[in-house]
Amino acid sequence: MLPTLPVAVIGAGPVGLAAAAQLLERGLTPIIFEAGETPAAAVADWGHIRLFSPWQYDVDPAARRLLTAAGWQEPATETLPTGADLWEQYLQPLAAIPAIAGALHTSSRVLAVSRDGLDKTRAGGRENTPFLIRVQDAEGAITDYRACAVIDASGTWHTQNPLGRSGLAAPGEAEASAAGLITGPLPDVLGRDRARFAGQHVLVVGAGHSAANTLLALGELAEQEPGIRISWAIRSASAAGVYGGGDLDELPARGALGSRLRALVQEGRIELYPSFTITGFKAADSLVVQGSTPHGEKQLDVDLLVPATGFRPDLDLLREIRLDLDPVVEAPRDLGPLIDPEFHSCGTVTPHGARLLSHPEKDFYIVGMKSYGRAPTFLMATGYEQVRSIAAALAGDQQAADDVQLVLPETGVCSTDLGGSCDAPAAEPAPTSCCSAPEPAFLGIPTGLAHGRSAER
């Protein structure tokens, strides 16, 4: 029992701040580390992107209660926010709540997580030993913090998948990036990055929603700025998976995105290169992209390349933590088969909570996008239910932790034949947490709302 120590939350994005709100409702004390200069810095980076889901699904229930008690006016529930809307109207006000603001450390990058005085190989007294979180600030100073539990909500925004085959960077990829010929993810084509794309031949690589958003923005820019040429390379033989379910999609904005993209390709405004695998780059004044296709080698000469090949988790900071990860997607082992993108969409994943997200390292959890490892279809409301369950478990309320509920929309194109609940209570008694509070505190909020659920995006 380490009741005087806080729960460390790594990352102050939507799920990290939701974790803090849930912990506060449970009478636990968070300490939050955000690598960016502001809360939810990664969300600000993609502020120009409009979400698929309306506001009613984008706000964590505990966060909503905290904000409402402080006089916050929730945006119209049926409107679709952009990332900037989410940041300005929800995440920034949430981070400014005194109980959260006082626990938040910005410009604080977590370098490593371990047990205080114990490396991964040491077992004696491990479960009762505080966690050690090593943090570097903007000036380079390093401070060690101690915590009774750790919730890693650091996301995957800064660890993109490489463009080459076999999961590796292609020869010349690093040099092309250093030369500015490969952009960052989700550039603001119609806003701050507009001048960079005007009059250029742009190649978008990838087959997900990020690629679709960028391609649609380029199509709109081409109508305003003559001379833009748009190419699109995907590894698969067909773009049908990107086009999605169209009118069958339960989130209309997501279905419309794919339908609009299909029209641009069919009209010849986007040149599609299917079955294209990048094998190398040559960077000079422009970029030569070398690739292999079923018909032989092919070379594309472009001015800029936008990568939209997804992300992967940064696990280096967790080398001294005892993890149990699925060998395929690098998610918690029992979650991995349920989110494998070859079989699942974001709407077919079984609701899951603290039990499924646990590791051999007691009271350590990975949540949010990072909990899905390399799987690409994580949704915010999934993360909100994850941290609700974890906060309950850390507070000693295992019944609430196991009562995971989430309504997930089908995409119209993906389904699964795997059913059942992944969070059924184990036969043996649930272990207690070193963070357990004697009684949950609800900060003046009616206890009947304490375990509110969130529907999926």
What does this structure look like?
Helices cover 26% and strands 17% of the residues. The strands form four sheets. Strands 3-2-1-7-15 form a five-stranded parallel beta sheet, covered by helices on one side. Strands 10-9-8-14 form a four-stranded parallel beta sheet, with helices on one face. The two termini are 37 Å apart. The radius of gyration is 22 Å and the shape is globular. The chain has 457 residues and is of the alpha/beta class. Strand 11 and strand 12 form a beta hairpin.
Set out the fold topology:
Layout: E1 7-10, H1 14-25, E2 30-33, H2 41-45, H3 61-69, H4 83-96, H5 98-101, E3 104-105, E4 108-115, E5 131-137, E6 142-147, E7 149-152, H6 173-178, H7 194-197, E8 201-205, H8 209-224, E9 229-233, H9 240-243, H10 252-266, E10 271-273, E11 277-283, E12 287-293, E13 296-302, E14 304-307, H11 336-339, H12 354-357, E15 364-366, H13 380-394, H14 398-402
Parallel strand pairs: 1-2, 1-7, 2-3, 7-15, 8-9, 8-14, 9-10
Antiparallel strand pairs: 4-5, 5-6, 11-12, 12-13
